[in-house]
């Protein structure tokens, strides 16, 4: 995705976040969603696993405090009404199902919502998991933002993960550069909610590793 | 704009349904949400409630009044026997009120576990006593533990000191007690507060219950 | 015990609490220990299960706040340096072994340190347990303060509890009106550390349900 | 008079013994107790340490410097792979450093469990992943859980904002992170603080770590 496509994708995710939602944005692509939230018109409360709940922006030059960062280690500047807490309290919020939505990047998602986003399975790789497994299973809804296919053109929406899982049956919705899809508990298919203009159902299906149910898609051809 | 403040607790209390489990804050009188309890008594038709609380009320106030109103079929409690707890005692002796007696620390931890997404935990408290009878036990590194499960709470009624519009809370001294873990444990948390302050007036370092755990609050 | 005996007993317990100890005093007799702690000369930090750690006195008339009470629901007045916390945090302190000493009343204690102090077993009684079970097993040392015998003259230090237990093997030391005793892990006997002046070993043994080892007792006959 | 302040961290650090498990606070740089880590490197002979921390250090600072000093044989960690974490990466690839990778929330909860006297707990995090391989699992009310055990910590090294002589602590913003649960989990907790204040200057409502969890602190 180029920058414009990324911004469009972030905008589509942001549009689906309702006012008053408690939202955690994973590192990478999901952080872009913050730029598209509504501000005063549609207030959304952010959560970061290192212990803040509130509203914030990236800290401008000169107002950066190394003790005030988000999970991506980026300095932030708080708006009024925030709260700090320690790590066990922070992960209680996730695991206890109190976050409405978390948005994560992914290597692969299965039709049943299994998520792979922490490890390629390469035995030479240095592993690191961070809060990914807690976020994936903790929020009421887990959204994934990703390219629809990998660099080799292989589908990233698959019937069975080939990468090591982060969590099972946790992803509810998948946002890619070419569409928005809902997973299904039985893993038989995904349901298209949106298809990018100019693409046919066949073109989308060809890039997807599982059957797509297009019956809910209201956007294509309108 | 987010604003969790309500002017009338009756509407929030009407979210309580027959058979719900209601956690009620307080240790003795400190932290007891008496206005919310009175609203539940006078403005709700919900019956057959399960109450989770440290005490069972005294005289005919607070939880005692709720018990007397005949809305409660079970109480999950650590210390129901107090001076002037005659309402509880009479209902209990007559078999009109089921009691699940829980050691105080297990009560707090089971509420926290519910709020924190913990499926069950091994606690040393109560091992070898009648309060652990029938429960799974395990020895881990030479210590004996009992497996305890979360308490699923539909609605929490608690009392706090101050709230901002996001529902961030501070408490007053030992009135804090069960408030934070009950707010965590409940699907719906309703709070009575003494002060309502503007966003930013509560020091983020000193917020005890972040607003994510609060659904509605009102000023008494 | 009359008031004078109770005060002497409380003084003996207090003398065994070292400076800097974290101490929880159960309701009833143990609350008297607070009057005998050293103040500035020997600072001891009190814990109350309803969420305070610090130093305090009973609140004088006119300075009572219904939101500032101890576990016995008595209004207290704090000295500088206290901290408030919620119930789950408070009981973590106990159960996690962070309190040095708790002092509890008792119906019975066995030679192996089993404690009965919450229920007589009377099926007509309204039960209530409070924090007794958490305190009993949580503190590093659990001290019991009690009359040496019950109202009928029966020993309260026994080989096996006849009342329902509060906790097993948790009591380390027993303070009674006539002596101080250490429990033993194997439950074969208790060790006398102190015997009240004027009593013979035989008199003490006769009022005790288990064998007493007097070899450590340095006080009798001195 | 109780006073947990020390002027020289070296003596406190000397309580660390060969084979000890040391929890070190911080999330990235925020909350990293760099003076204590440097003191451990320069003034302790303890070897074969196990480190518990969220990250594994960057460049040759903090935990990275400790790893480079050859004192550490194992690290229990959630996110060791960071920019410029070359010290960790080289030791790990050469098989000189054992890694126990733990999801961040399980790391925090296992430390809290140790501090709270919980023998083990069922967590949903990690179920069905390689990080739960070989661990006991259980389905409770339709959710799959993994049984996780406490992390026994000998010494915690953490950073806080202010302390009074009793060791009551406040933190600065997101530098709070793992500090409170590490202080709970450890047999000995040593803290570096920016400010030392008189007893009574910390609001009892805003103390985050009560002094019961603190053994020694010093002003940097």
CATH architecture assignment name of the domain at 3-33 and 93-213 in chain A: 3-Layer(aba) Sandwich
Mean pLDDT of chain A: 94
- Pick out the low-confidence regions of chain B: none
Strand count, sense and barrel status of the largest sheet of chain A are: 10 strands, mixed
Structural class of chain A: alpha/beta
Shape category of chain A: globular
Estimate what percentage of residues of chain B fall within beta strands.
25-35%
Question: Mind sketching the topology for me?
Answer:
The complex is a heterotetramer, with two copies of chain A (222 residues) and two copies of chain B (220 residues).
Chain A lengths: L2 H13 L6 E4 L19 E4 L3 E3 L1 E3 L17 E3 L4 E2 L2 H9 L5 E4 L3 E3 L4 E2 L15 H7 L2 E6 L10 E2 L12 E6 L2 E4 L6 E7 L5 H6 L4 E3 L9
Chain B lengths: L8 H5 L7 E4 L9 H10 L5 E5 L9 H6 L3 E6 L8 H8 L4 E4 L2 H13 L3 E4 L13 E4 L2 E6 L4 E11 L5 E2 L8 H7 E11 L19 E4 L1
Parallel strand pairs in B: 1-2, 1-8, 2-3, 3-4, 8-10, 10-11
Antiparallel strand pairs in B: 5-7, 6-7, 8-9
Helix pairs in contact in B: 5-6
């Amino acid at each position: 995705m180029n920058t414009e496509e990324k911004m469009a994708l972030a905008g589509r995710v942001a549009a689906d976040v309702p006012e008053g939602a408690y939202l955690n944005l994973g590192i990478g692509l999901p952080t872009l969603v913050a730029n598209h939230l509504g501000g005063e018109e549609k207030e959304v409360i952010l959560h970061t696993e290192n212990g803040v709940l509130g509203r914030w922006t990236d800290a401008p030059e000169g107002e950066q405090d190394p003790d005030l960062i988000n999970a991506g280690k980026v300095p932030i500047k708080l708006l009024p009404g925030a709260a700090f807490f320690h790590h066990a309290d922070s992960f209680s919020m996730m695991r206890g199902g109190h976050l409405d939505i978390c948005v994560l990047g992914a290597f692969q998602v299965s039709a049943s919502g299994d998520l792979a986003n922490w490890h390629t399975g390469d035995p030479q790789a240095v592993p690191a998991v961070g809060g990914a497994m807690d976020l994936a299973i903790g929020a009421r809804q887990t959204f994934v933002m990703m390219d629809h296919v990998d660099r080799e053109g292989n589908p990233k929406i698959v019937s069975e993960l080939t990468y090591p899982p982060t969590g099972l049956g946790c992803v509810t919705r998948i946002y890619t550069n070419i569409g928005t899809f809902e997973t299904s508990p039985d893993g038989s298919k995904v349901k298209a909610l949106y298809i990018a203009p100019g693409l046919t159902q066949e073109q989308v299906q060809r890039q997807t590793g599982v059957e797509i149910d297009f019956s809910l898609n209201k956007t294509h051809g309108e | 704009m987010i604003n969790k403040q309500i002017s009338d607790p009756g509407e929030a209390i009407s979210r309580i349904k027959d058979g719900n489990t209601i956690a009620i804050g307080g240790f003795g009188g400190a932290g007891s949400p008496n206005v919310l309890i009175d609203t539940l008594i006078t403005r709700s038709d919900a019956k057959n409630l399960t109450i989770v609380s440290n005490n069972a009320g005294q005289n005919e106030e607070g939880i005692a009044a709720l018990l007397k109103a005949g809305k409660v079929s079970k109480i999950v409690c650590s210390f129901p026997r107090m001076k002037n707890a005659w309402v509880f005692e009479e209902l209990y002796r007559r078999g009109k009120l089921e009691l699940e007696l829980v050691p105080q620390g297990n009560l707090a931890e089971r509420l926290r576990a519910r709020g924190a997404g913990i499926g069950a935990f091994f606690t040393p408290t109560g091992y070898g006593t009648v309060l652990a009878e029938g429960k799974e036990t395990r020895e881990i590194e030479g210590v004996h533990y009992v497996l305890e499960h979360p308490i699923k709470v539909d609605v929490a009624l608690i009392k706090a000191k101050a709230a901002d519009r996001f529902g961030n809370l501070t408490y007053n001294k030992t009135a804090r007690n069960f408030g934070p873990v009950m707010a965590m444990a409940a699907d719906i948390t309703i709070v009575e507060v003494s002060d309502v302050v503007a966003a930013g007036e509560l020091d983020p370092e000193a917020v005890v219950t972040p607003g994510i755990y609060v659904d509605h609050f009102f000023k008494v």
